[in-house]
Design a protein that fits this description.
With 224 residues, the chain is of the alpha/beta class. It has one domain: NAD(P)-binding Rossmann-like Domain (Rossmann fold), CATH 3.40.50.720. The protein is built from six helices and eight strands. Strands 3-2-1-4-5-6-7-8 form an eight-stranded mixed sheet, with helices on both faces. α1 crosses α6. The two termini are 27 Å apart. The structure holds NADP nicotinamide-adenine-dinucleotide phosphate (NAP). The site of NADP nicotinamide-adenine-dinucleotide phosphate has 32 residues, from α1.
Length: 224
């Protein structure tokens, strides 16, 4: 696998830890944030680019920039995501739309653009959630968030079939991680972002399987 990686949403949380973990393993990393500024990572193998998954113009400009790179992308980690309705009980239209724009539509169209530029042997890791599992769902909170991750899982299935033999694609649950995505994660999450990133990168490097849905916290396959 080519060691040029894109990590979306690398300004904080799990994405920030993933970028650092990959850099420590000798990857060249392009990390994204909406501002295009990730000043907390100073490593000559790291560059930050602007990407707003809620805007198609931003996605197109980002794909154009990647197209013009001489080195080919071997790993795309679709990590950026929002959880505006996490811990709430009923859907609300504005946050529902924003959640789907970012977690589903933007992620899909970014991946459509980037995957065409990836050589054989590359990998696409979609950072999903166990909350996207239909068979494991036992609660009725976080409607848009859960549905967006189920939709992302469906994209993983579709893409893993379409790109089979060329690019491997999997969904990964990063665990319950202490980040600012929601207050309950920050207060009660079981893993630090660093611990989650370590497990995710280990899976990507040693166990990555096309069409898989993987729980990086427990190290087990998940039911769709
Ligand atoms: N934390 C958990 O326990 C947990 C559990 C299961 C799954 N996940 C998933 O793990 C991923 C990372 O979550 P996290 O907890 O690390 O969240 P986080 O700390 O809130 O970080 C989210 C990242 O997404 C970026 N982002 C937000 N809106 C964006 C947009 N419109 N376009 C592009 N990037 C955008 C943010 O960058 P800027 O704001 O700088 O643009 C930030 O870097 C998400 O997909 C989340 O659903 C997390």
């Amino acid at each position: 696998m080519n060691k040029l990686a894109i990590v979306t949403g690398a300004s904080k949380g799990i994405g920030f830890a993933l970028a650092n973990k990959l850099l420590s393993k000798g990857y060249t990393v392009i990390g994204t944030s909406r501002s295009g500024n990730i000043s907390d990572i100073s490593n000559s193998n790291f560059s930050a680019l602007s990407l707003d998954l809620a805007g198609s113009a931003s996605i197109s400009s980002f794909v154009e920039l990647i197209k013009n790179k001489t080195e080919e992308v071997g790993l795309l980690i679709n990590n950026a995501g929002v959880g505006y309705d996490l811990d709430t009980m009923s859907p609300e239209e504005k946050s529902y739309d924003a959640t789907f724009d970012i977690n589903v539509k933007g992620t899909v169209f970014l991946t459509e653009g980037i995957s065409k530029l990836m050589p054989s042997g590359s990998k696409i890791a979609n950072i999903s959630s166990v909350m996207g599992s239909i068979s494991l769902c036992g609660s009725h909170d976080s409607v848009a968030y859960r549905m967006s991750k189920s939709a992302l899982n469906m994209y993983t299935k579709i893409l893993s079939d379409r790109l089979a033999g060329k690019v491997d694609v999997a969904s990964i649950h990063p665990g319950w991680v202490r980040t600012t995505i929601t207050e309950s994660c920050l207060k009660h999450g079981r893993l630090t972002p660093g611990q989650s990133a370590e497990r995710i990168v280990d899976y990507i490097e040693h166990q990555f399987k096309n069409g898989d849905y993987w729980d990086a916290e427990r190290g087990v396959h998940l039911e769709w």
